Amino acid sequence: MLRGAWFSSPMGALVRKEFLETWRDKRALWMAVSFSLIFPVMLFAFTTYMVKQSTEEPTRMAFLGGDRVPLLAERLSDDQFQVEVLSEGKPRELLESGYDLVLELSEDFVEDYVSLRSAKVYLYLDSADIASGRAQGRLQERLGKLQQLVVSQRLSARGVAQQLLSPWNLQVRDVSTPSSRGAIILAAVPGLLILTLFVASLATSVDTSAGERERLSLETLLLQPLPGWQLVAAKVLAVASMGWMGALLALAALVSLMPMMPLAELGIQQAATVGSALGMGLLLLPLALLVAVVQILLALRSNSFKDAQTQLSILQIAPAMLLVVLDVSGVQLESGVWQLVPLVAQQQWLKALLVGDPISLPLVLAGSLVSLLMAVFAVALGARALRRERLLNTG
Amino acid sequence: MIEVNAVSKDFGGRKILRDLSFTVPDGRITALLGANGAGKTTCLRIIGGLLRADSGDVRLGGIDVGRDPMAARRQLGVVGDREGLYERLTVAEYLSLFATIQGLSGGVRDKALQAVREELELDDLWHRRTRGFSQGERMKVSLARAMVHQPQHLILDEPTRGLDVLAARLLRKTLLQLRDRGTTILFSSHVMSEVSELSDQVLVMSAGRIVGGGTPAELLAQTGCGNLEDTFVTLAYGTAGGQKEGAPAC
Fold first, then answer.
1. Predicted pLDDT at B56
2. CB distance from A171 to chain B under 8 Å?
3. Which of A8, A25, A220 sits opposite B84 (nearest CB)?
4. Rounded distance, CA A296 to CA A236, Å?
5. In B, which residues are within 8 Å of A224 by CB distance?
6. pLDDT per residue over B190-210, tens digit each?
7. Which of B10, B71, B72, B170 lies most in the core, judged by the most C-beta atoms within 10 Å?
8. How do residues A35-81 score in pLDDT, each as one tens digit?
9. Measured between alpha carbons, how far is residue B46 from residues A337, B35, B203 in Å?
10. Which residues pair with B20 in a beta bridge?
11. Is beta strand B2-11 parallel, antiparallel or unpaired with respect to A121-125?
């Protein structure tokens, strides 16, 4: 009843008009939905690829002439490094048939080895193949260890202490964990969600401002007995609804895809639940309003529809870059003041919710209020902009 | 009544309107004639409150447009030089929007919508979105939007431009009916036959000023010309068409 009465008011009718126009614009809707779904799907593909990369895929090596050195073939071989001894074959064909490497002993290898001469071993690989390159590293590591063993045995047999040949013993310890690699992926999510919001509302904001101006239908609206702030506010609500829908869609897709992502293999405990996703959606609402009004203001300032598209395309790169720079530069954002800065605040809150960290409710309320107040201020600026005579193409 | 009092307007240092003054009486159709660039559209936009006059004032039914544009716009319907339709709304949604914005609601709004639907023969278009409408259909919807709240004052900027015979006829019929109901109508046009047929009063503008005014018969008598076209050319350009300077006008 109350809802119906509101829609019967001039402001209600205006809001309804803007929503109908926005949600019936198939081109804008298609753009918003596509971008919103692309980023979670890309994230899904990237995590899957990362896990595949980090998982030890066994190397297959053909060992031509390995039957003459069975101990060497046995020492090289383990679960991750499968050695198949062949008496004959052509290295190129073997590589093409699926082997990562082909190791071939020279004809007089055994004779040279026994005579303590440097016996020749030939390694064939396809450097264009990533797996082949990785396999080469693995083989060299294994051969290096065996070579060191043989050298030390030979020196011991001649009464030389092997320590003489090893002034130091370097041991490398990689402290990176799957979890820290996964954290990099998750750190990108808030920025991408915010970028989704910008992209999803772009087409609508240009259409409702620069588009209306170019079609001269804005003039018809300006001739109505409505204050300028109502005209801008109705447009902002409609544009924000599209941006917010994009961000919510991306969130929903992310939460739906997360159970299928190999997060456990990356050491990430899935913290984003439906509840936290809802929280993230709510946190993005004030930002959606602010982004919408800024986009409309910029589009109204531009000279044409095309000009507005160009300006806004640049605008949506700027915040994404800002967030990346803040992340990369390692600026400490622990101070509460940062949570009053739009964009930075939302990024911090989303990051925290994503990994299950707590966020301060008073700071969230204060930060959201700042975003809303800035949106209200921008609406007032927009109302002033509507009074500019240049808007009417007076030439 | 529309009163324009000593209105001047510059754009980038170029004088568009110079001390422009005229009156459009109630229940009359007044045509505003002028060559391209004479300042007609600027004048109509100042009357609608879209542009502000650098000096002078405009009153609609006694309301100063510059001081109280909202009140003035409630008494005003405007059909601009482009239709200003929303292509993703149906005709019903479009007209309902503007009726509501003008303060109509409930049964009053429904009656107003039904009235313009019948008067402008919009039955076939009523539930269609306006994308792909012909020029005549667009003009009908635009006129319906301007008159749905039954304003006392109606302004039309070259309303018959691009219309076919039937649409132009319907427009003329509607304007005459509105005049008979007491509506104050001001329209700009280049079509002399239409001006002759519709106008009770003609105002001729040139270089931002009114250079002639009166009933069509009065203007003919004033210039000594045999038709309105020659009268207009004489008043607006000083000579009748291609005639040399100093030659008799008509």
1. 93
2. no
3. A220
4. 7
5. 73, 98, 101-102
6. 888 888 888 999 999 988 899
7. B72
8. 999 988 988 888 787 777 666 578 889 999 888 888 888 888 888 78
9. 48, 18, 17
10. B7
11. unpaired
Looking at the complex, report in whole angstroms how far the Cα of residue A23 sits from the nearest Cα belonging to chain B.
9
Nearest partner of A221 among B94, B189, B221, B88, judged by Cα: B94
ipTM: 0.89
Nearest CA to A232 out of A286, A284, A300, A282 is that of A300
What's the rounded Cα separation, in Å, for the pair A246 and A230?
24
State the count of interchain CB pairs (< 8 A) between A and B. 79
Burial of residue A288 (number of CB atoms within 10 Å: 0-12, 13-18, 19+) = buried
Strand order in the sheet with B209-214: B76-79, B153-157, B184-188, B29-34, B201-206, B209-214
Interface contact flag, B45 A14, Cβ < 8 Å: no
Q: Where in chain A is the domain with CATH 3.40.1710.10?
A: 57-165
Give the residue numbers in B contacting A (CB under 8 Å), as ranges. Answer: 11, 42, 45, 48-52, 69-71, 73-74, 76, 78, 80-82, 84-86, 88-89, 93, 96-98, 100-103, 105-106, 145
User: Which of the four CATH numbers 3.40.50.300, 3.10.129.10, 3.40.718.10, 3.40.1130.10 does domain B2-214 have?
Assistant: 3.40.50.300
Distance of CA A113 to the CA centre of its chain: 53
Tokens standing for A352?
A: 């925290």
Measured from the Cβ of residue A25, the count of other Cβ atoms closer than 10 Å reads 20
pLDDT class of A173 with cuts at 50, 70, 90: low
The nearest CA of chain A is from the CA of B49 a distance in Å of 7
Collect all residues of chain A within an 8 Å Cβ-Cβ radius of residue B51.
Answer: 389, 392, 394
Cβ neighbours of B127 (radius 10 Å) = 10
A80 in contact with B, Cβ within 8 Å:
no
Q: CB of B145 within 8 A of CB of B98?
A: yes
Taking the Cβ of residue A4 and every Cβ of chain B, the question of whether any pair is shorter than 8 Å is answered with no
Give which of B148, B156, B5 is closest to B66, Cα–Cα. Answer: B5
Q: What is the pLDDT of residue A131?
A: 75
Helix (H, G, I), strand (E, B) or coil at B58: strand
Q: Does A14 touch chain B (CB under 8 A)?
A: yes
pTM for this model (two decimals): 0.79
**CB nearest B85 (choices: A10, A217, A394):** A217
Q: Could you tell me the residue ranges of all domains in chain B?
A: 2-214
For the beta carbon of residue B21, count every other beta carbon within 10 angstroms. Answer: 12
Question: Least CB-CB distance to B84: which of A9, A25, A219?
Answer: A219
Q: Is beta strand B2-11 parallel, antiparallel or unpaired with respect to B55-60?
A: antiparallel
Alpha-carbon span B20 to B56, nearest angstrom? 8
Q: Is A310 helix (H, G, I), strand (E, B) or coil?
A: helix
Rounded Cα distance, B186 and B202, in Å:
10
Residue A390 in contact with partner chain B when CB distance is under 8 A: no
Cβ A195 vs Cβ A344: under 8 Å: no
